[in-house]
Amino acid sequence: MSKRDELIAKYAEHIKDKFGETPDMDLLTKVAIGLGPSIYNVDASKVSGSDDKELATVKNNFLIKKLGLQDGPKLMEGINAVMERYGSSERSKYRAVVYYMLAKHFKKESVYNK
């Protein structure tokens, strides 16, 4: 099993444990691949749910640039909803899991079907 496959399996466990959902493994794999080498970097692979600057980066770089969403209050509401569901007890949240859940939240899974 490759390192990437191990990480994707770990992300799938987080989705099951923290969100109570069975992950779409195809979508989760595409999200992880889309993140490139950052999934192997301890710091870059996680999102701090309490860091406003980091959440703004998620909004700008992922929701607006990658998913093509229009800026507005709904974006931060979506991010906050995902962060809340992930749980405040989990300080560092996996970026791939956050992006996967945001793609599902905004019904933008089709972005990864290209």
What would your notes on this structure say?
This protein is mainly alpha-helical and 114 residues long. It has one domain: Orthogonal Bundle (Recoverin, domain 1), CATH 1.10.238.120. It is built from five helices and two strands; from the N terminus they run H-H-E-H-H-E-H. Helix 4 (73-86) crosses helix 5. The radius of gyration is 13 Å and the shape is globular. The model has no long low-confidence stretch (mean pLDDT 95).
The Cα radius of gyration reads 13 Å
Query: SSE order in H/E notation?
Result: HHEHHEH
Question: What is the 3D shape?
Answer: globular
Counting structural domains, the number is: 1
Termini separation: 26 Å
CATH topology: Recoverin, domain 1
Low-confidence stretches: none
Quickly give the structural class. mainly alpha
Mean pLDDT comes to 95
Strand order of the largest sheet: 1-2
The count of DSSP E runs of length 2 or more, i.e. the number of strands, is: 2
**CATH class placement:** Mainly Alpha
Quaternary state reads single chain
The helix fraction, in percent, is 55-70%
| Biggest beta-sheet profile | 2 strands, antiparallel
Measured by DSSP, the beta-strand proportion falls in 5-15%
Number of helices: 5
